[in-house]
Amino acid sequence: MKKLCIVMAVLLLPLQLLAQFKLSGRITDASGGNALPGANVVLDGSGNGATAGQDGYYEFRNLAAGKYTLRVSYLGYAQVVRQVSLQADTQLDVALAQTTHRTGEVVISATRASEKTGTTFTNVSKEEIQERNFGQDLPYLLEQTPSVVVNSDAGAGVGYTGIRIRGSDITRINVTVNGIPINDAESHGTFFVNMPDLGSSIQDIQVQRGVGTSTNGAGAFGASLNIRTLGLNREAYAEALNSVGSFNTWRHTVSFGSGLIKDKFTFDGRLSKISSDGYVDRAFSDLKSYYFSAGYHGKTGMLKFVTFSGKEQTYQAWNGVPQDKLETDRTYNSLTYENETDNYQQDHYQLHYSKDLASRLNLGGAFFYTRGRGYYEQYKENQKLSKYGISPVVLGDTTISRSDLIRQKWLDNHFYGATYALTYTDEAGKLEATLGGAWNKYDGDHYGEVIWARYASNSEIRQRYYFNNAIKTDFNIFGKATYQLNEKLGLFGDLQYRTINYEIEGEDDNNINVTQQVDYHFINPKAGITYELTSNQTVYASYAVGNREPVRSDFTDQPLADRTRGVQPEAETLYNWEAGYRLHGSSTAILGYNTRYSVDANYFFMDYKNQLVLTGQLNDVGSPLRTNIKDSYRTGIELAGSVNLNDVVELSSNLNLSRNKIRNYNETVYIYDENYSVEGTTENKYSETDISFSPAVVSAHKLEVQPVKGFKAALLYKTVSKQYLDNTSSEDRKINGYQVADLRLRYILKPSFLRELEVALLVNNLFNKKYEANGYTFSEQYAGDPTRYDYNYYYPQATRNFLLSLGVKF
């Protein structure tokens, strides 16, 4: 704390709060008077620019007397230009009229929450994403949002990264880009390493916590990330961004946009390359990506094509570091084969269309196709040749049945479908109703090949030793509506029907037949209520039900006996209650300065039925098993607040306090004999225990100061309490809590020959803490020995490191 106070004092030392002349005001919608947060406000010829805050407020300080041209623009609205003669502090409010161009994406709007839906969400703007974006993966750009915990296999935020929201991992977080599902249809995971530098092409992100609103793709079972890529840019632009940092980290990004051509057409593009050696030994990443969009914007319709792609090669660091090496060799990597790498490419193609069918009715739809293919390569010692379909090698009296070899495990898949949304708004603006849905199909091949063997026998080049195919069809339809009963009271309702057909045919990598088929039918109702206490205070409550099908491994890793009897894992169900309070406002009464402030408080109760969790049991070939737990829950409060003084000092904090429990949990520990064959099991019963990877306390804090125009210094502080590696609440199998501070410095210049020049520095882990953010465990016992042996593995995060970036905008 002493170090923290010193840094805060240094940051605040040059604070200058005096200004001679000031120009300020609010940017609003001309038709409804609603604030337009994020509106762009520029003083032509002065090099000064500002972005309207959440309440639409903007401000320029330290302006000399004279005449100025104020230019205000906002996506979907006509630009306004005003002449200002400044002789004293002046307030100038500007109301923008909606443009005649169709710019909105109906499918995206249909799956997002609003102030009227009674759900819990956080909107992250383009500006917030840009100031956090130094080339690290997308989860790190969301680290400061409520209830979020992130981690990195390689330790530095580049390569394979993970995110948990309220303790739910990425397989329970529904991710969409422009309303199109991104989660893998089988594992339900989203691999941000396949979308490197997507943050440079994002307009905004909405993070919904809990079940949220109806959306497309795998069911939201803890949270949703609704990502929108770049919107309409009316002015042409070009940008170049380069970063360099610790662990030989480099990032090169070039972006461009045509602006609005002939008042109808737009083009945007980006090329990126990111590389890093990683904090962990040999955990390098080599990432390449592109983004391109082309749009037609008419008076009543819009047609937009979006494509983005990522190609990655990462050295495998997913084995983690054994607990006994954390003190002596934190960067230890057990893998040494030079090409022990993961190689994957994922291409996304989206075609969006929206059309005003009538003055109050509009239709939006999208077609999409996602192509994924790649493999990870492994060196394996002393493998049975028979497992790979290779005959033993006979040399005289010697028979060789085992060999060292190199294998590749492949995924080759196609994912395609369509989404739609039809939205109606009544003339009085009280009712907004949407009918939407989606159909998509996944067709994926899983196979393995041997590319080298010390004793090859009768094997072929690229000897294929297993193959199976999976086909999954997902259909959903939903209807939702908000209705304003009066000026203060609003209601929200949402009903979704979803059906899934999933088929697997073939053998897995252990030569076990995994052929099976299953159907699921889900009904997911949601309801909410909002009440406006005052013009800037709202309370809300909601209830939602979410259902989710098991993931691929729940089917393929079942014991053979269960599959033979037709026993299949059950779907999970979540009953989610949310209640909260929102306050957003501005005042001049705080310290005498123009102050913007916000407070958000939320209570949640997430009641799970048949949640799938690890039990400690193994299947016939040693793969860990999950089983349905009848009763488990998460409950807690989330607090978030911010205060901004004259855009000179900003302080924001959020805090999650939660209780995450499983009732009546049974754990299985295997007992092995001297030949490491299973001799028996021990079962441990728990009446109530903690859900793994669910810290009871998570907080994030930011103190940012702007002592001079264009220069910002921010201290970021993150705290995460202890987490358990399994579901037994054992102190022997846990991740210790940690507190980490980052320092971010940004200086923006606006010379006459450039639109913007930015120099930024990010110092991660400022106080050089040693900590781990993720891990895993397994336990064993041996015949005749009552001792339980725990094997804990961790993912150490990097000690103090930096990223320096230079950005140029034309």
TrEMBL record:
The record's keywords, sorted A to Z, are: Cell outer membrane, Ion transport, Iron, Iron transport, Membrane, Receptor, Signal, TonB box, Transmembrane, Transmembrane beta strand, Transport
What Gene3D superfamilies does the database record attribute to this sequence? Carboxypeptidase-like, regulatory domain, TonB-dependent receptor, beta-barrel domain, TonB-dependent receptor, plug domain
What superkingdom heads the lineage?
A: Bacteria
The record's principal subcellular location, in a coarse class, is: membrane
**One Pfam family of this protein, by short name?**
CarbopepD_reg_2
The positions making up the signal sequence are: 1-19
Q: Does the keyword Transmembrane apply?
A: yes
Q: Is the Iron keyword given for this protein?
A: yes
Q: Where in the cell is it found?
A: Cell outer membrane
In Swiss-Prot or TrEMBL terms, this protein is called TonB-dependent receptor
Organism this protein belongs to: Pontibacter ruber
